[in-house]
Amino acid sequence: MRPIIQLLHFGYHQSMSCIFPVAIFGTLALSNVIAVPFLHRYDAILLILLGVQYFMYRSGLETIDEIKVICVFHFIGLMLEIYKVGMGSWSYPEPGYTKLFGVPLYSGFMYASVASFMCQVWRRLRMDMTGWPGLKSSALLGGAIYFNFFTHHFIPDFRWWLTALVFIIFRKTQIIYRVRTITYRMPLALAFIIVGFFIWLAENIATFFDAWKYPDQHQTWHLVSFSKISSWFLLVIISVILVAQLKKVKANRTRSDSF
Question: Does the entry feature the keyword Transmembrane helix, yes or no (predicted)?
């Protein structure tokens, strides 16, 4: 009976951590079948998601620090989207007033939703890490992964070399998380793979509801390539590195203030 109770508590906290991602996909689904009067679909999605963020903050579901992290990820994601759309990797074919260089501003929230989940689950499961490689190596790896998303259009794609580096650099890193009174551990690289897989599933849902389209999906929708899991795997690493470092900075600042 105890394992079932633990699983239920774990599932509850995971579900609560997914409120913003669920809100995004729910909005995409509903806006695909229900038109908002006097608004383009992309503009309506942006307004709804801004409203969700305001509600989550006012209700206490998100803290001001978590809002700051989400804003950082929104900017990072939006810059990547503008570049990728400009390179023809995918497109947003519908009209909208809140589009920048062909990219709707709401698209940054899809990246920010990953940060929202990370922050929420970190707090709810009282997460920590052991064997963290440190700021220098993790920051250099995160930067190399992010820039590879841009540079592989002009020079060879180093994603598989970077993936190998992930397993080397984080080979000793484990996530510590707590469910009720019991503490669990998981290799960080395994967590990257699991989260990357679920984001790939979410990507299939998003493209099905026309959040964006890949070039080969304009005629008819079909499953996104399994190779995209590796891209999301690497994106999750950037997310974890940023969130983990911000958590460490905040923890150090809190300890300093207590002296």
Answer: yes
